[in-house]
Amino acid sequence: EVQLVESGGGLVQPGRSLKLSCVASGFTFNNYWMTWIRQAPGKGLEWVASITNTGGSTYYLDSVKGRFTISRDNAKRTLYLQMNSLRSEDTATYYCTRDQAAYWGQGTLVTVSS
Amino acid sequence: DVMMAQTPPSLSVAIGQSVSISCKSSQSLVYSDVKTYLHWLLQTSGRSPKRLIYQVSNLDSGVPDRFSGTGSQKDFTLKISRVEAKDLGIYYCAQTTHFPLTFGSGTKLEIK
Prior knowledge:
The complex is a heterodimer.
Chain A: E1 3-7, E2 10-12, E3 18-25, E4 34-39, E5 45-51, E6 58-60, E7 68-73, E8 78-83, E9 92-98, E10 108-112
Parallel strand pairs in A: 2-10
Antiparallel strand pairs in A: 1-3, 3-8, 4-5, 4-9, 5-6, 7-8, 9-10
Chain B: E1 4-7, E2 10-13, E3 19-25, E4 38-43, E5 50-54, E6 58-59, E7 67-72, E8 75-80, E9 89-95, E10 102-103, E11 107-111
């Protein structure tokens, strides 16, 4: 059974940093691209970043480029999202997803507020 | 960016009826490998989204065949036949052909 388990969310002040993690199981992690998608409270879905299966290429939403970094450790079957210079508009539940939105984690809530 | 125009924003339907949801993209969703990366997701209250259909018309494992997807290029439709109470939630279309990946704004399905 495919499982994606996110962690690392919480309340953080504007301008500070947070690092999300997603541990994968039930599939061959290093065969798949992985993606972070977020959902602001009461809003729709917004793609944040994607990474190829090897980690060799990454892609970002314009509004997070230069502030967020997606990475992965295939040996640990773990996906990361380093979020720096956080803004109030980054407040959302962040989902870890497998290639083509095939599987989703339970999400981790990030709240950016003073 | 590829805009995804999803309609209607909400639907109220009686059990047993059929409904259709439309999703129109601002660009063709056909990728260079000739596949079309248009998917349909369902988010039930308080839960993570779940993919129902991938690449226009392929049902994910465990999804009943009451669900069907059709379309091509820029125009896609999700049909739910014989709606059941467990089908309620918000349906999203999603394209993964072009970066940035984008989503429709959602269709809230309510049961009368």
